[in-house]
Protein 1
Amino acid sequence: MSAAQPIRKIEDINNLKNYYLEKEEYRNYLFVVLSLNTALRVCDVLKLKWSDIMSDDGKRFKRHIYLEEKKTGKHTAVFINRQIKKAVKLYISKCSIQGEYVIANKHGNPLSRCQAFKIVSYAGAECGIEGRISCHSLRKTFGYHAWKNGTPPAVLMQIYNHSSYEITKRYLGIMQDDKDAVFKVVEL
């Protein structure tokens, strides 16, 4: 089995997000948007509660999502960007909130990792995205595009809470065409 790869093409990312939006499956759309924009592991996205995102009265967004990562036990703060706010507002306008978890099943419990994987892999296949697409692909996609937009790998290492730069480098999924682009631009 090959390792999950980031989604490199912006068009593919938009197709993946729009897949569930067009089907009016707003929970799945919100899951994809949260996963792409927080760089959190799937287990951490699935345990998010409405109180992590919204004020106590449910009328305002918090500035950050604060959590202790399940895998590492490290604390992190994730900025709630416009894409997350847009997806949450859409979800709230179209669906009734069932329970305390943001990505919940019909009983109000957190969605399982297996269900989350099916959501992402099915949409990836339906959208014709090449390679193995999984929940981890969405986490890696964030880093790949942040790196392509000039974010230093050391900052990404902190965002991911990685213990080494080598792990972060693998996450970025740098391919030959990425390296070729550097040689095309830097002509001394």
Note: The radius of gyration is 17 Å.
Protein 2
Amino acid sequence: MALLHVDFFSDVLGMSMNMDVILPQQTTWQIGMEGKGADGRYKTVYLLHGMSDDQTIWQRRTSIERYVSKLGIAVVMPTTHLGFYTDTTYGMDYWTFISKELPKICREFFPQMSDKREDTLAAGLSMGGYGAWKLGLRQSDTFGAAASLSGALDIVEDMKRNSQEKRAPIFAGIFGSLEQLKGSENDLMALAGKLAAEKKELPRLYAWCGKEDFLYQGNLTAWEHVKKLGYDLYCEESAGDHQWQYWDAKIQDVLRWWLGTDIDLK
């Protein structure tokens, strides 16, 4: 595999941004790791971080490079700061950046990346799980599948919970008031209903959440909602709370689910 640290300028955000990118490479002599090249254009995973993190976190907390080395796929890990993958009320258009500008930039920088929706997965944890489902539900012609690990999938309830905490001004700066958030294009429940009503091709969805996670009830609500709307959802729950030992294991399951393979990634 090749690991690239990419500094680039975002016209949408008006500032320099960062992403780390893993690209497939056929290798023979690496000790302890098999490297597989891509067969044609690269399938690509956009792997999103949570509230406290940045583009480096998936490499620092998991073995993502080793997991994908056998698969011949690319992984894009961008930083989006604490913007909840949203065009915020304070004027920073993180949604436009992640959904429109970033895929275009990546495919210009790395022309072997596939532009097919079925070859493009959005995945993430916590805030990134929200962002991943949002990409699938609001940009389904680009992202054919979306996977959430411990995601903030019921964002309205999450904002209610944070309304009495020190993070309340942060959420207000991102989403506006609770009334502005409900039913908007930042509300995953509303997005799922809107897309289903439009009779467009729906994304495949994946979700996992631990039963001891503070986001667990919100996940159950979101899972039931999209099931009733007819989405192809694979969801599972198990013991666990909000930490990396679970996300490291579950990102392997996400890759197997997306690619339809039972390959041993360990």
Note: The mean pLDDT is 95.
